[in-house]
Amino acid sequence: MTTLELDNETATLLAEMAEQEHIEPEQLVKDLIKRHSETLTAPENDFFAYAGIWQGRNIDQETIRTDAWRQGQP
Question: What are the counts of helices (DSSP H) followed by strands (DSSP E) for the chain?
Answer without folding.
Answer: 3, 0
